[in-house]
Amino acid sequence: MLEYERCGPGLFVRFGTRSAPFFAFRIGKKENNISEERISMNIDFESRNITRRSFLKGAGVVGAAGLLSACGGSKSNNAGSTAASGVEAPNSTGATPLKEYISWESANREIESWNLLYSQTLSDANVVTNLWDGLMSFDCYGKLVPAIATSWEANEDSTVWTFHLRDDVDWVDCNGEVKEHITATDFLVGLEWVLNASKNEANNTSMPTLYIVGAEEYYEKTKDMGAAAADLHYQDMLDAGVGIEAPDDYTLVFTCKDPCPYFDTVASYTSFYPASQALIDELGIETFRGCDNTNMWYCGPYIVEEYIQGNTKSYIPNPHYYDAANVSRFERLTVTMISDQAIAFQLYQNRELDEMDLNESTITTITSDPNNEYNSQLCEKRARPSAYAMHFNYQKNNADGTPDVNWNKAIANTAFRQCFYRGLNLKAWFSRYNKINPLKCENDYYTMKGLCYNTQGAEYTTLVAKEMGFDTEKYDGETMIRLRANGGDISALKKQAMEELSAIGVTFPVKATYFIIASSTSALDNATILKQCFSDSFGDDFIKLDVQTYVSSLTQEVRTPQLQSFVINGWSADFGDPINFLGQETLHDDNAFYSHYYSNIARVAEAPADYQKDLMDAFEQYTDLVNAANAIVNDTDARYEAFAKAEAYLLENVLVSPTYYDITWSLTHANEYSKINAMYGGCNYKAVNWETSEEAYTTVQYEQFAKAFDAAVQG
Question: What is the fold of 387-660?
């Protein structure tokens, strides 16, 4: 029996350690489970409104405030001063911790949904994670820790998982008033909602349908029923044989299709969060699906005090939070949306922000003056748990809806695509966010580093590196690893591509259309540098970057009409296995998110043109390699080696082109290494147990934090 207990070290499964257990994943069918960072190399701000300092709320930081919603949490309710039950923030440096904290968020990342059962974007989860809790959370080292579940165990073959729940968790409304007690039934309600195609519109279904007995069948049933499925309730799900039950109010049991040694990591995902039937009945299905901070119910560490669309979000402690006695929280957490980093720097200098990421120009401003006080406060952050890649669109349209045949022919050519991976020097672009160590941002692989390790302790991407011939290459701060073999010289590839493409009517330079949000000066600056990288690497006679803008929604304005040549975005893992990443690019699988929604290769496969034959052959071969690796269920090392071969094939044929890891420098009053560090799921922005300081942290302190963290996770 695997046992996980609340009070004590217990046995925590950590993917990214040498002892990570193995599990056989099956590529499922039907809808997509998405953890998506939808920003390219733009600024990711996290933030809101304040009272402890004078904030520029009405001064037009981001323009019109948009919708204003305020709810409860008045400054006289004492929620902030009492909820933490005397628990103090961690303090390893002797500094005076902050009681209020002002963070930030990019203006291009406005929340799209407050409902974690419905939302499919990480930018939403980063907000709502402070408002809802699930069965488990994570600690600062990436280990699973209890949340609503106090302990959990699996049977001998890991097909049946039992979770024991706390008996003191309440739903509260936006005023912090208790509405209902949470029991195991709420998790039944939540899962039925996710699996009901009429209620949740097929969002977030793949995690349960992949693993839970009867889940896929129930989803198919609701899909076939259409609107009538809205009348179904959790008992109908149980009667249909879905592998979930609640033997009592505080016990939850899942039955898996196959042995699943780390189903607990799967169950940590938002698909398995609770929902209140009483709230659904009160709001109705449509309103619950689109609930907001004013009518939702909360069970997490904070409630929303105020929300101004496009401007700020303000959180105060949930006065009835079940874990208040064991975690530290801020009396007020503010998230402010900012579109320009110059403004962010001004706010930070005025102590109207407590943290900010630094771009190239700001770092230059600081380091060019040896007397600048911030020289000693430059803090390099650890990599965000996402791997970013350039996803090509193989079925691009023009603005009038007609096919962009010139681009579609070009990107179908292997030599043309290989130029992106073997010749595009992005060092100057990396410098926009990590001027000091730009090549630390380099990403040569598709799967995120640190996701899983084999039985010999080898991190998975090192196996890919061996397949690619990179295994002896080390970071030198000077040259991108993947450009070293040929010095970035792609003249032969370029000549080959131009000859082959000219023969089928392609005209040069090929226009590569790249979209950025119109309101962000930082995005424009980044795109300008990227355009120069294209020019320096390819010459103006081959590939020319065409920067275009969208107003508010990349999905609606760009991806859906298929106007982009490529999008640069990241994938944050949902669980600890390579299939999490590699399965998103395969053919013949409705779960392959990028194949359907970014590359559109699934649409190409329906009726490929003659010039797309080689492209389709490559995707078919890649798919076969992934499926073969995924079929290896009894040998961890063999499984990972097979996935590494599949990933190497993906990269050698440049079906996607990895770009960067998000490693930035910051000025901050928060110890990054005290925050939750989840390698998968959406808990990284949960603001509990943060170590903070009234005085800004220094470079030396952050180096010490990083050293201590590395020693802890490697030991």
Answer: Dipeptide-binding Protein; domain 3 (3.10.105)
